[in-house]
Each structure stands twice: as structure tokens, then as C-alpha cells.
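Changelog-linked ticket: SAJ example.
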Amino acid sequence: MKFNHICVLGLGYIGLPTASTFATSGMKVSGVDTNLQIVNGLHHGKLHLYEPGLRELVQTALKSGNLTIMSQPEPADVFIIAVPTPFKEDKKADMSFVISAAESIVPFLRKGNLVVLESTSPPRTTRDLLIPILEKSGLKAGIDFLLVYSPERVLPGQILRELVENTRVIGGINPASSQAGRDLYATFVRGEIIQTDATTAEMVKLMENTFRDVNIAIANEFSHLAERFGVNIWEAIALANRHPRVKVLNPGPGVGGHCISVDPWFLVEAAPDDTPLIHTAREVNDAQPHHVVHLLQKKLGNLEGMTIAALGLAYKPDVDDLRESPALQVAEDLQKEGANVVAYEPFKKDFKHTGLQIVESIPKAIENSDVLILLVAHTEFCNLDPAEIFKLTPARVVFDTVNGWNKEKWQSAGFQYFRLGDGTLT
Ligand code: SAJ
């Protein structure tokens, strides 16, 4: 099947790269976002998010005339829904953005259109939620219009490369839909394109992120055991990983981002009695920021009145995304314990957060601190020279929660160095 005009709904971390990639591959693309600030910014070539290479890609797409940014959908051959699916307070999936996006398409849906859902969604969303909404158009799914679920599996920080190179799963509600989805993504995908049914594709996406969450949870739990038994977890993991079938992931201050810390809950919500392991893994990872604060208290005693420089607030290294960030949770918890937290996040210098003092440089963050805590292994932090830092701060204690610093170097610069998962901590 041949498509000429695509309407992408949602211009976030997935929608914007996807829209721009289709546009630079020669398709006419209408990029739609209901947030007028985002739309106005993009009209002036200003991006609301950071991803390596994205600014240049969007600018090329806009200049080519193939990408147009707007706040409402318009008639097209293909509609791609790439809106967020966050969770609510009770950890239940918030499908309101998907519902609104689908409803906004209904007036424009025509015979022969293809609709694609890319947003991570609970099992059976395409069939049970999307079809009834789209059929309000009077058209029949699978006959008058085609419908697929195709999960996005790109890694923040490497989105542009993975968008093109990753294997793409296309889950159609019928074989004709899958085939149309395949034809669409063949425009730019160089990885394999594999066809399946919609519910399998939904499960695949949730399984991938849940698998990673459970594996990080076991790494975090191993780090607790290492602290208890006087073992250095980093050495133990390196040795265990010499086994040909073992690949233990890294412990850290917790699991954040809008994917791995959220998606497993969709499975727990859909089948609570079949997901005790998944549920527990989520709880282990969610408790990890509190564990970090607890470790610091064990080492330093009462934190009240102590000035702590928090290095990094993003959910992982070298990204600007703070959603569900464990680093932010640690900073908040330290503040609750009475510490004065002075935080620095190089990828979001203008970030504001009630109750947290956020500064715009490392020297500012550390100039009056008693302790430095490394919360995110941003390259900029890992490359710090401890001898230089020593001159800029009265702090003589550093706590590394991500194994980002070299113990010997920091010690020989004059710091007391502690690390999450070191048997010497408790
Ligand atoms: N983390 C650890 N230890 C590790 C690895 C990660 O504590 O060994 C933490 C990170 O610091 C971060 C969180 O886990 O807080 C998640 O980071 P990540 O790099 O594992 O994953 P995301 O959330 O950035 O992207 C994931 C990816 N999924 C998988 O690797 C299975 C990506 O491919 C998906 O496209 C993305 O979720 C998504 O959009 O669903």
C-alpha cells in the first residue's frame, strides 16, 4: 500500500522524532499537539525536549516543507497516535490522552485510512478501547479502515538511531492491517519488520520493559545483600557476569522514566492475581530512593541541617527527562529529613521544584556543602577531576549511588568515598 500523507498525534519523545523521520523520508506529515506552547515553539524551530540530533532533524524536516505543525488533526492517509500513557495516583493506566487523540481522528477518518497506535498500552487496548471509538465514524475496523498497534522501543538518548535500526513489531487487527503497517514503516525502518496481531504486540512491549524492571530489581536487591554481608556488589556483579548465561544489571538509586517505572503496572492492573513477581519488583525499585537516604543516615547520622549537593536529577544519564526520576525522589527525601539540598541538573538548568534549591553550575552546587551525592552518571559528572572539586568545596565526604566515580582517585584527592552496594557502607 502507498501512503502520502501522515498525521502524527502527540509530538513528545516518540511522536516528534517519528514525524520528523517520516518527513525527511519524503512523506507529507502533519505533526499535531494539543499543547499550544509546544506548537508555537516548534513553529519557531524551538524544541521542548532534548534528544541528541533531534533539533537538527526537526529543522531539516520543517525546512523541507514536508513537516507542518498544528494543534488539530486534518484528513490524511495514516493517523499515528503517539501520546503519553502515564499512570494515575493509584498506579492505574491513564488512557485519557489515547482516548482524546482517537476521538479527535473520528471526524477525519475515511475509507482506506490506516490508524496506528504507538503509545504503550494495557493488553487489549487496540481491540477493546480503540475500535469502538474509531467505529463511531460509521466505518468498520479492518474493512473500511485498517488498524495496528506498533510499539515504540527506542532508548532515550539513542532514539534517532534506534527508530531506524530496531526491529519493528506490527500488530494488526487483521492481516490486511498488519501488511499496511509493514508498508508504512518500510519507508524508513532498516531493522526487521515483523507482523503479528495487535494484542501480542501490546504484550511484547509490556514484557520487554517489565523484564528489565524485574532484572534491575534483583540487582538492587543484590546490592542490599552485599551491604549486609560486607561484599562489594560491583566486583561481585562483574564476576557473576563472567558466567556465560548471567547478565546482572546495575543497582542504583531506583528506576525512573516514563516507561520502565510505569509499564509493569499496566500488567499488574490488568491481572493482579497473576503478577506477584512483577508487583514486588516494582515495589523494590520504588523503595530504592528511600534506601539510598537510609544508607546516608547510617553513615552520617542525623542529616538535619546538613548541606548536601545533589548531582543530577534526571532519571538516567545524559537525558533531560525528570519524569519519575529516582534522583529527584532522593533529593526530596533528603530535604524531608531536614537536610539543605542544593541540586544541579546539567540537562535541565531551568528546572524548578517546590522546596528544592536548584542551581546552574557545579561550583554553585558544592560551594557550601558538607556532602556530595552523585545521583546520575551524566558524562559531565563522571569526568570530574576530584582534585579540582576538592578546591571548590568544603565537603570531605562523597556518596556515589551509581558507581560513576573512581574510588581510589576520590580518596587520594582527600575525600571519604562511599558507594551504594559497597560492603563497607553499613
Ligand atoms: N537502570 C538501572 N540499572 C540498569 C539499567 C537501568 O537502575 O542496569 C535505571 C535507569 O537509571 C533508569 C531506568 O532504569 O532510571 C530505566 O532506564 P533504561 O535505560 O533501562 O530504560 P528507558 O526507560 O530509558 O527505556 C526503556 C527501554 N526498554 C528496554 O530496554 C526494555 C527502551 O528500549 C524503550 O523504548 C523505553 O523504555 C520505552 O519507551 O518504553
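Closing comment: Example verified and attached. Residues 198-229 form the longest helix (32 residues). The chain has a mean pLDDT of 96.
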